[in-house]
Amino acid sequence: MNASNFDELERQVEELFDKADNLMINLKNFQEAKQIYSSILEMDPDNIDALNSTATCIKNTSGPDQDFFPACLDLYQRALELDPEDFETNFNIGILYYTETPSNKKDALKAIHYLKIAIAEERSATVMFNLAVIYEEQGERGQAKEMYQEVSN
């Protein structure tokens, strides 16, 4: 692929992202956004943002009796293979592991592991709050208090 073809592909991916992000974030049209993110992955299979966003769409379009866990886990694991320290992926997989689904019981240890990696990358109040909640639900009051204090600082 020459430079001009690469630039054209990059421009197309960026345009598709703008459209899909608007559908997902502003319009909450996860089904149509998922189709566009899938198109992005066809053009750029190693696009971490598209992998994460596709998983978000799958989770939000799954009915109450549908199990989104395996599909989302697969996408997050693919993203982690590309960048094991990616903030968004570690946050998302941490939350996924602490989500009860037909094929997944809450796994606090895995959730904590990935959320700590996310925090090491970016000291996000959202991630710290979620980690505090998990600690609290696991009876780890001291660690929960520590995280809650970090959030309020």
Q: Care to describe what's here?
A:
With 153 residues, the protein is mostly helical. It is built from eight helices and no strands. Helix 4 (69-82) packs antiparallel against helix 5.
Give the tags:
mainly alpha; 153 residues; 8 helices; globular
Order of helices and strands: HHHHHHHH
Main beta-sheet annotation: none
pLDDT < 50 runs, ≥5 residues: none
Count of individual helical segments: 8
Would you summarize the structure shown here?
This protein is mostly helical and 153 residues long. It contains 8 helices and no strands. The chain has helices at 3-26, 30-43, 48-61, 69-82, 87-97, 108-121, 125-137, 141-152.
Write the layout of secondary structure elements.
Layout (H helix, E strand, L loop, with lengths): L2 H24 L3 H14 L4 H14 L7 H14 L4 H11 L10 H14 L3 H13 L3 H12 L1
Helix pairs in contact: 1-2, 2-3, 3-4, 4-5, 5-6, 6-7, 7-8
